[in-house]
Design brief:
Radius of gyration: 20 Å
Helix content: 25-40%
Structural class: alpha/beta
Strand content: 5-15%
Strand order of the largest sheet: 6-5-4-3-2-1-9-8-7
């Protein structure tokens, strides 16, 4: 098995213009009884990056079910709960949910504590026990800037999750401006500095896409939709971008070279709008000479014709009453 795992950020996008239904997944009305999106996804890729854990602590009953619904060797990379990386966002949620009152209490509730840490670890234990836990992703907001307080906080987080494969996504240019200090801190804990492809603005981080530690490499492709990055009708519009084969070549070659230097490497496409992340993940696999496993829908092959010759396309079955989801 290759030490480079390629997948997408998330597997469940049911609503809106960016849905995967009827594109990557069969239309709801044409799904066989008992169709399961995660199991179908795992026929095509050997890893997925879970974003739902950012909005709520993972629950052991849920992650145990994930492990049961995927084959041996499949891995889940898990995004840290927002309280660990976005305390301001968490505080705003509290302010919206609680009646106006004690501001000090809200501030205190917004700070992650040992109970939060223990709850998160318990939630992912079933994946670790089955050998299906990939990396933990600590994604910080662009407002998280290099400085004494930020450095101390990051060090504490790295210590708290020591023993796990940890990947840290930093997005403000102050971290790359102090590249020696940043790499030194991450390297001290064996944490991967997440290499990100995204639209670049004045204060965006700059990176060389090289591994910083020998244990793990982590790359995320967010798309390059600069026009909709900060101004959009819906958040999903930001990720409405399809990389061309030519744009992917450099990223694919970089990931291919990086996997020769590390024990494990992960590459996730986050341009999820209309399953564009699936198309680009498949294109990357094809460029690396890896097989495109699983059956793809005819709708997917028609939407992304450049991939069609390499895909195994499922026949478009007529709808039968017994096959409808109930």
């Amino acid at each position: 098995m290759s030490n480079l795992r390629i997948g997408t950020s998330g597997w469940h996008y049911p609503d809106g213009k960016g849905t995967w239904n009827g594109i990557f997944y069969p239309p709801v009305g044409k799904r066989p009884r008992g169709f399961d999106e995660l199991s179908f996804y795992a026929e095509h890729f050997d890893t997925v990056e879970v974003n739902s854990t950012f909005y709520g602590q993972p629950r052991a009953s849920v992650t145990q079910a994930w492990a049961a619904r995927t084959p041996e060797g499949f891995e889940f990379s898990i995004k840290l709960y927002q309280k660990f990386t976005h305390p301001r966002m968490f505080r705003q949620r509290l302010e919206g949910a609680l009646p106006e009152g004690d501001r000090a209490a809200i501030e205190e509730l917004s700070r992650p504590n040992l109970a939060d840490l223990d709850e998160f670890k318990r939630g992912i234990d079933p994946l670790a026990a089955r050998g299906k836990l990939g990396a933990l992703l600590a994604q910080f907001p662009p407002s998280f800037k290099f400085g004494q307080a930020a450095g101390d906080y990051l060090m504490g987080l790295l210590q708290a999750f020591s023993g796990y494969s940890l990947a840290v996504e930093l997005r403000h240019s102050s971290w790359s401006d102090r590249i020696g200090d940043t790499v030194g801190l991450l390297n001290a804990f064996g944490a991967a500095w997440v290499q990100i492809d995204e639209p670049k603005f004045r204060l965006s981080i700059r990176q060389n896409f090289l591994p910083n530690v020998p244990g793990i490499y982590y790359m995320r492709l967010h798309g390059r939709n600069a026009a909709a990055w900060w101004t959009h009708e819906k958040a999903e519009d930001r990720y409405n971008y399809l990389y061309s084969a030519e744009e992917l070549v450099e990223l694919t070659e970089t990931a291919g070279a990086a996997r020769e230097l590390v024990k494990k490497a992960y590459l996730y496409t986050n341009n999820h709008y209309s399953a564009k992340s699936v198309a680009n993940a498949a294109m990357i696999k094809e460029q690396l000479g890896e097989p495109l496993e699983g059956e793809y829908t005819q709708q997917f092959a028609e939407r992304y014709p450049e991939l069609a010759p390499a895909l195994r396309v499922a026949p478009d079955r007529p709808i039968r009453g017994a096959d409808r989801l109930v």
